[in-house]
Amino acid sequence: MYTTGLDPAIADLLESAVHDLRGPASRIGLVSQLLNRNATALDADARTLLQYIEESANAVGVVAAGLSRYAEICARPLEREPLDFGVPVAAAIDSLRGEIENARAQVDCSALPTVPADRFLMTWLFQELLSNAIRCCSEGAPEVRISAVASGPGSWYVAVSDNGPGIEPDMAERVFRPFKKLSPGGGAGLGLTICRKIIELHGGKMWIEPGCRGAEFRFFVSMEDGGR
Questions:
Q1: Of 11 and 114, more confident
Q2: Residue 66: exposed, middle, or buried by beta-carbon count in 10 A (0-12, 13-18, 19+)?
Q3: What value does the mean pLDDT of the chain take?
């Protein structure tokens, strides 16, 4: 077991930010709901404003939840074990079963390596990458492929690719920044930020491969069972 921990000052800042965001957002949303119960006494403009207020309060709550998840993942101990990556992929697919079926998505996975990695974090990573691929495929049924590719003696990377519209080259780094969303709706725009952080905690690297049909995320983790 290895401690990944955030800097204590940053951890305190995140905890305070989450607390200060959640409280007002909850109260604003509650006030909006109470006023909406008397919507018959309001004109159309007032009802529209109340809807905006409620949606904004919900959005703030989503951001707070995303920040909380980021802090949780960064601060938890890194528990490495010899892990067949097929195991977290299977768990992620099972967790997203309803979303996959509703989208009529096809997910194919070839043989993946066994590496020293944290099962919980890798399951979270594959779940996020699969969910992103399904959401971002706007036309037709999503097709997602997960594979491992040898890139030299003793070297490899995992690729998660889809048949969606792809990602513009100028967005290849920006999508990993906090609050940069690939598609409307969804979460707070922290999913890919957390994915890259998970890989970095494992001593690896994550990037978007340019020039591919659709989007292709690639990553590798350190084979050293040393953690951080």
A1: 114
A2: buried
A3: 79
Q: What's the residue count for the chain?
A: 228
**Residue that is written with structure tokens 């079926």 in the block:** 101
- CB neighbours (10 Å) of residue 139? 8
- Strand-strand pairing, 106-109 and 77-78: unpaired
Type of residue found at 171: M
Tokens matching residue 175: 């999508």
The DSSP bridge partners found for residue 216 are: 161
Whose CA is closest to 18, among 72, 76, 77? 72
φ, ψ of residue 50 to 5 degrees: the values are -65, -40
Q: Which two tokens stand for residue 182?
A: 């690939």
Name 113's Cβ contacts closer than 8 Å, sequence gap at least 6. 84, 85, 148, 156, 158
pLDDT per position as a tens digit, 167-178: 888 888 888 887
- Where residue 69 falls among pLDDT bands split at 50, 70, 90? confident
Among 62-66, 74-78, 101-105, name the most confident range.
Answer: 101-105
